[in-house]
Amino acid sequence: MTDTVSLPDTVSGATIGRISYYNFVRRASVLLGIVTLVLAGCYRGTRPPNIGAAAPNFSVQDSDRQVSLAELRGKIVVLNFWATWCPPCVDEMPSLVQMQQKMKSKGVEVLAVSVDADQGAYQKFLKDHNVNLLTVRDPDQKSNTLYGTFRFPETYIIDRRGILRRKFIGPLDWGQPEIVDYLSKL
Questions:
Q1: Between helices 177-185 and 87-103, what is the axis angle to 10°?
Q2: Could you tell me the residue range of the domain that residue 147 belongs to?
Q3: Are residues 105 and 161 in the same domain?
Q4: Whole-model pTM?
Q5: pLDDT digits (tens, 9 = 90+) for 45-87
Q6: Do 63 and 26 reside in the same domain of the chain?
Q7: Is residue 40 predicted with pLDDT exceeding 70?
Q8: CA-to-CA distance for 43 and 64, rounded, in angstroms?
Q9: Is there a single domain that holds both residue 152 and residue 92?
């Protein structure tokens, strides 16, 4: 006895070919999506470059202020690269503001560097969302390029001596007990 499959008269070989093709495309796109997610959230090696080394210094001048990372030596710096056009950045901002209020007395300073090209959108966002952090706009993206940041938001923790300690890719809830505890112990 042989195993054979008989096809109804209404199913042609061309139809089976199309079904096989679409199943292949569907499987390939799922696999490609998984690979993309893995690569997007990872970095090479066992840890990001420069962790444990001195944080690269930079100065940014926008229409409101000039900020230099070196000015913040002696504080724990939460260096956040963000943009108004980035939905995860917008979602993350309130928790950064709240964490700053809670931790400022313990020597934690959030430095939020916006990569917005549109000064009006940046100013409107700060006003509309009551962002009362140390923030500066770097439309030329020199500071985030110095850190190798091209995905937003991305945040670096710099200790009181100016050493890079952690890197976070993507938005966080900065009120999480683990994060507050980590910052408190630096």
A1: 50
A2: 59-185
A3: yes
A4: 0.74
A5: 445 668 899 999 999 988 888 999 999 999 999 999 999 999 9
A6: no
A7: no
A8: 34
A9: yes
